[in-house]
Amino acid sequence: MASHRRPKQPSRTRVTVLTTAAAAAVALSANAANAAPSEKLGKDEVKAKVDKLYEQAEQATEKYNGAKERQQKLQKEISTIQDNVARGQEELNKLRDGLGSLATAQYRSGGIDASVQLFLSSDPDDFLDKASTLDQLSSQQVDALKKIQDKQRELAQERAEATEKLKDLSATRTELGNKKKEVQAKLAEAQKLLNTLTAKEKAQLAEEQQRANRSSTERVELGDDAPPASGRAQAAFSAAQTRLGSPYVYGATGPSSFDCSGLTSWAYAQAGVSIPRTSEAQAQIGTRIYSQSDLKVGDLVFFFNDLHHVGLYAGNGQVLHAPRTGTVVRYESMTTIGGPFMFGVRV
């Protein structure tokens, strides 16, 4: 006899789960259908955003340069102190070896000065014994003990100074790493934006940049209104001219690639003049010139409120500089830098 079992019904819990899932799927489909597709930025909009990111990267680059310069300075100072400590320790050892056994024992005991111990003694016999001992010290031994004490204090101060500078170095290295990450993040974000363009749009942007680089590496007419600021300024400017077409690379100081302050510091170094590494520090030297009409060839010129960009004045309202990532050392009108001219500095 055939069995006529009733089909097993799904549990209420299972029905609820399936119903909820189905409802969610319908809702997601509806949202997807109604949502507007992500609006693609046009070539010019991407370029504007990328240029802004490159400007932010340059700001971070100058901070990176400053941290790197501080690191190098601290490393030199620490090395000098450590050398001084090593030499001082050798001198201290020689002074110790030169003392008689009595003076050496007194120094190593770590007690207070022997003469002070005598006057503080409450035992007359002990006082007389120590007085007799003190008389046995020659003036040469007393001088040696004093030198040892002075040298010990000096070494303690130098070691303390080295310890503080090592702490500063550690903090500076951390700052250096953070600024490097910040620069790299800005450049990566710019590249991500550029990757949203079509191959044709990328080619158009590249051609525009190459055309700008080619046209602005040609010799500009200086004009009679802008003679060289000085012989060394002219030498620095002439050195920078030999680097026209060199690529911008953050943190670079030449001779084959540069960032903005890397170019100016390199150029003046070729003229025998040492100037600071960063644009902010370069702004603190020389004589400031606030009127563009008073600028002369070779003067440093600074842009943006935070002074994160610097170049060399080239005459006729032109600047010779390393602009930003993706460009080369070139001439450019001061009106198209992207930030306001703040002032010039005559080195």
Describe this structure in words.
It is a single chain. The chain has 347 residues and is α+β, with helices and mostly antiparallel strands. The protein is 59% helix and 8% strand. It has 10 helices and 6 strands. It has helices spanning 12-34, 43-98, 101-108, 114-120, 124-135, 139-194, 199-215, 231-241, 260-270, 279-282, and strands spanning 287-289, 300-303, 309-315, 318-321, 330-333, 341-346. The chain has a 6-stranded antiparallel beta sheet with strand order 1-6-2-3-4-5. Helix 2 (43-98) runs antiparallel to helix 6, helix 4 runs antiparallel to helix 5 and helix 8 crosses helix 9 (260-270). The chain is elongated, with a radius of gyration of 36 Å.
Main traits of this protein?
six-stranded antiparallel β-sheet; alpha+beta; 347 residues; 10 helices; 6 strands
Brief summary of the model shown:
The protein is an alpha+beta fold and 347 residues long.
